[in-house]
């Protein structure tokens, strides 16, 4: 009799991560092997910036040692090798998110990618009015009466570009509210996303709440309205399998420094048919076909959006990071981090005077927890934890509207990654348990 694989049997077939494996993984990260204030470092700030494994560090170093040159323009040996490494990295990262090669644009970070889309859309109106570019541009041009919809839980990077796009085009910005538990109010979403909606932008996973949003349901609402859909994948691409085509989003962004890669490199995914007609964001060398003293003609994507000298070594290192995550197994990483997240939330909720934001214990979330300590400012909490060798994030986490909605100005956030153990979480919880007594709150 043939054996039919079910989700349960498939999950059992993939070895579950445990502390022993994580300790082996930890050896790949030199920065983690140090003392902070006389105690072993517990790094719980990967939601802001992750650490780099040796394979990523060595990939960037090897590029500079062996093939450093400008890409695309040189005919000499080093230039050819540099170009191959640069474009091979693009293919690797495209495969990592289920995209095609030409749909993967290098940016400095996710913020630049979102601004690229925002400015390209406002330029679309100008180009269409002048009869320039593809005829389809007029369908992308926003105008007064059109609406842009975001959510109340967005990082500023996925809010301010759309505020500015609304200002430049006369469109109206609206948002999907969150409830007290940090979930989107989908019951009212259909009344907000409607016939006037031209663009819907939302985060895949909240960097404050840990909430994983229902992407497919939101995309369906956007599709029914005929809107473009933009996904902020900064807190999902590093931590769980991501297939942008299966999700059917029009654009998606993420940053390398949150997924084991260096700073200064990010990715914009865009559907080929959209990228090829959108006006460029930055202009200059490397993104043109013909230039006269009066005008220029532009290359198709992705080069269309990559003016000037690019982040070559960083792109190579990002590809090495993608390979590291793929080899470890993003489904396994996601399950391990979910376990750590549940351990954090369960432990925090058991402490008196602690308010945890987002889904409670037992509910789905990514491996982070933001919390408020009654009577103690978040910055004081962070400094106290640092004295114990524990690195966390403090402040509003670039989400002031969300904090204001929840009646807070700042929180402390602990965010785990594949190199954190349950012992790390327990040390963190033990330290938090002493905060209120220390400050006599």
Write the layout of secondary structure elements.
Layout: H1 7-13, H2 19-26, E1 35-36, E2 39-40, E3 42-43, H3 54-66, H4 77-96, E4 104-107, H5 110-129, H6 137-140, E5 147-151, H7 160-169, E6 172-176, H8 189-192, E7 197-203, H9 215-225, E8 228-232, H10 244-247, E9 251-255, E10 266-270, H11 272-275, E11 288-291, E12 296-298, H12 312-328, H13 330-349, E13 354-356, E14 368-373, H14 378-387, E15 390-391, E16 393-395, H15 400-405, E17 411-415, H16 422-432, H17 435-438
Parallel strand pairs: 3-15, 5-6, 5-7, 7-8, 8-9
Antiparallel strand pairs: 1-2, 4-10, 9-10, 11-12, 13-14, 14-17, 16-17
Helix pairs in contact: 3-12, 4-12, 5-7, 13-16
What does this structure look like?
It is an enzyme of class 2 (transferase). This protein has 441 residues and is an alpha/beta fold. The protein folds into two domains: 10-40 and 329-438, Alpha-Beta Complex (Aspartate Aminotransferase, domain 1), CATH 3.90.1150; 61-326, Type I PLP-dependent aspartate aminotransferase-like (Major domain) (Aspartate Aminotransferase, domain 2, 3-Layer(aba) Sandwich), CATH 3.40.640.10. It has 17 helices and 17 strands. The strands form five sheets. It has a seven-stranded mixed beta sheet, with helices on both faces. Strand 8, helix 10 (244-247) and strand 9 (251-255) form a beta-alpha-beta unit. Helix 4 packs across helix 12 and helix 13 (330-349) runs parallel beside helix 16. The radius of gyration is 23 Å and the shape is globular.
